[in-house]
Amino acid sequence: MRARNIGLVAVAVAMAAAAGGTVSFAADAKKAEIPAAAVAEGEQVWTTRCSLCHGAGGKGDGPASAPLNPKPRDLTDKKWQASVDDAHIETVILKGGTAVKLSPMMAANPDLDGKPDVVRALRVKVRSLGAK
């Protein structure tokens, strides 16, 4: 049932993106609406940057993770998910690991400064990984 629900969310995101609308994420603690274009850009950033180390499923097993020490965070870890707030996740996404005393191997994304909706979309993506 959970896989079906995730699939339905993906379809809704795609349909809203195609229509140029906004997407509401129930997983978003503030239930804020994120414009579909920001969701699409966030997915592109996830695919081209984040998943290289964190893996497509967020387990820290991406193709570039093998030589890294420490290993990338397993974003599916429910204990970790419960230990951090949304602001922490957004800070790491935007400013990198050193901003929160984590590994400098977690790169900053300064090009996302001024794109808060894209950062929020990425945070929602990270949170969704912990729901699996």
Output the strand order for the largest sheet: 1-2
Major sheet characteristics: 2 strands, antiparallel
Give the structural class: mainly alpha
Q: Please, what is the average pLDDT?
A: 83
Q: Uncertain regions: pLDDT < 50 for 5+ in a row?
A: 1-19, 21-30
Annotation field: number of helices: 5
- What name does the CATH topology carry? Cytochrome Bc1 Complex, Chain D, domain 2
The share of residues in extended strands comes to under 5%
CATH class: Mainly Alpha
Distance between the termini: 12 Å
Q: Which CATH architecture is right?
A: Orthogonal Bundle
Helix content: 40-55%
Q: What are the defining features of this structure?
A:
2 strands; 132 residues; 5 helices; mainly alpha
Overview of the structural elements:
It is a single chain. Helices cover 52% and strands 5% of the residues. The chain is mainly alpha-helical and 132 residues long. The chain has a single domain (38-130), classed as Orthogonal Bundle (Cytochrome Bc1 Complex, Chain D, domain 2), CATH 1.10.760. The model is unreliable at 1-19 and 21-30 (pLDDT under 50). The protein is built from 5 helices and 2 strands. A hairpin with an 8-residue loop joins strand 1 and strand 2 (33-35). The termini are close together.
